[in-house]
Amino acid sequence: MSLLRAMNERAQELGIPLGVHLDVTYRCNERCVHCYLDHDDHGELTTAEIKDILEQLAEAGTFFLTLSGGEVLMRRDFFEILEYARKLLFNVRIKTNGVMIRETEACRMRDLGVEQVQVSIYSHRAEVHDAITKLPGSLQRSLEAIRLLRSCGLKVAIANVLMTANMDEHAAVRALAGELDATYTLDPTITPKIDGDTAILRFRIPQAALDSVFHNPDLVGNVEEFCAPPPPPNDDVMEGYPCSAGHTAAYITPYGDVFPCVQFPLPTGNLRRQSFLEIWRNSPQLREVRSIRAKDLPVCSSCAHVGTCSRCPGLAYMEGNMRGPSTADCEKSFARTGIASANMLLRGRSGSQASLVQIRPLAS
Amino acid sequence: MSDVYIARSTAIAARMLGGEMMVMSAVDSTFFTLNEVATVIWQAADGRTPLRQIVAESVCSQFDVDPETAQRDAESFVTELSQHRILIVSAGPIDSPRSGPVEAA
């Protein structure tokens, strides 16, 4: 067992929020067509409030801290926040579009000991990337940021979200990542907007494109293994947890709302009214999330994919039931194996979307 | 190893988890968990206290170990962590050491 895995298991046993994703702002200088956020500022946490939250997270045992947004550099105090986080010895990863990163910012991130910077790149062609971000010149500036970050010695990951507009570009983006000496991650998941609006789901890549991604050895490695039919689930699978959300992971919005995960907008408390540990330990919603085992899932427990599915409880929640299926993950399991999920069989593979719950932040 | 001063690098992340210190290098993502004795040395690595003094005052006073063995093990530990740039080793006192990690509540 790797040390990291052992650490995760230990954190789970002890009930420690090992990894926290903190969005410091939802403001952004890009307007990506598929983005799930509302970019207006509805009363962001102040610098002092964020520093206090960071102290609380350190005391709670959080080790991995992802600072994201929105665009993190839209906050003028971002480096003050980053410096404070590093003073508290978090392992910090930053998600950014890179547009505002120049040599000064890149070197500062390096000097502060940031572990990795993730930059979103949608295409190697400006006409495609900039059409998605709706910011002319953004590809050029993001790529320049990656070069600067790499020249400073920082690790950079290129995140390539796939959607209808760029679904044929991933090989070129992957090659570009190689040229830039950056790692490459691909994500074919478009999620509903945080307020429950599903309009952006029209950008999801079609099933045939998903099939193609999952059968591409450059992306998944051993295709035969990756796409193998799922083995029958054993007791460990049925007694297992869906994912780390709410177990060892948490998400904090720029307004102090605490959710189990960035993709799981179940309100559990607000840090302007309660301490982090009070929410983490006592929230009825988090306790409910933690109580769910695979055997408790009404549809998925009888599904052939139950042991291998990437079922996201957050996406299931947005479909109306955190114990229910996540249609996007059903489609992924089907694309990998050609075996319909229990949910798809129930629906006659109609592919119809369940109505989504409307999510509102707790903060007024 | 003649007497040396040790300080924690600024390019690390660290946290106590269930009585063990987790340390990760931001430079090469090397990940360590330190046992109790190593944690004591790591926490005492303030850049101002010589390693020999840390061993005598922090290790030998808390653990049932003879001073020579403790010093030898400490030197080995310091060498390994310095190779991963998690600890800075110097013949003289080191300025601006980092504050220690926060312990989980």
Derived from helix and strand composition plus strand pairing, the structural class of chain B reads alpha+beta
Which fold name fills CATH's third level, the topology of chain B?
A: Arc Repressor Mutant, subunit A
What is the first-to-last residue Cα distance of chain A? 45 Å
Radius of gyration of chain A: 20 Å
Describe what is shown at a glance.
The complex is a heterodimer of chains A (364) and B (105). Chain A has 364 residues and is an alpha/beta fold.
List keywords for this structure.
heterodimer; A: alpha/beta; 9-stranded mixed beta sheet; 16 helices; 9 strands; disordered C terminus; B: 105 residues; alpha+beta; Arc Repressor Mutant, subunit A; 3-stranded antiparallel beta sheet
Describe what this molecule looks like in 3D.
The complex is a heterodimer of chains A (364) and B (105). Chain A has 364 residues and is α/β, with parallel strands linked by helices. Chain A is 37% helix and 11% strand. Chain A has helices at 3-14, 47-60, 78-87, 103-111, 126-133, 138-151, 170-179, 207-214, 217-220, 223-226, 235-238, 276-282, 284-291, 313-318, 327-337, 342-346; strands spanning 19-23, 64-68, 91-96, 116-120, 156-161, 183-187, 249-252, 257-259, 269-270. In chain A, helix 2 runs parallel beside helix 3 (78-87) and helix 8 (207-214) crosses helix 15 (327-337). In chain A, 46% of the residues are buried. Residues 350-364 of chain A have low confidence and may be disordered. Chain B is an alpha+beta fold and 105 residues long. Chain B has one domain: Orthogonal Bundle (Arc Repressor Mutant, subunit A). Chain B contains 3 helices and 6 strands. Chain B has a 3-stranded antiparallel beta sheet with strand order 5-1-6. In chain B, strand 2 (12-17) and strand 3 form a beta hairpin. In chain B, helix 1 (36-44) packs across helix 2. Chain B is globular, with a radius of gyration of 13 Å. The termini of chain B are far apart. The chains are: A alpha/beta (364), B alpha+beta (105). Chain A binds chain B through residues 3-4, 6-7, 10-11, 13-14, 16, 18, 55, 58-63, 86-92, 113-115, 155, 277, and chain B through 10-18, 20, 22, 24, 26, 29, 31-33, 98-99, 101-105.
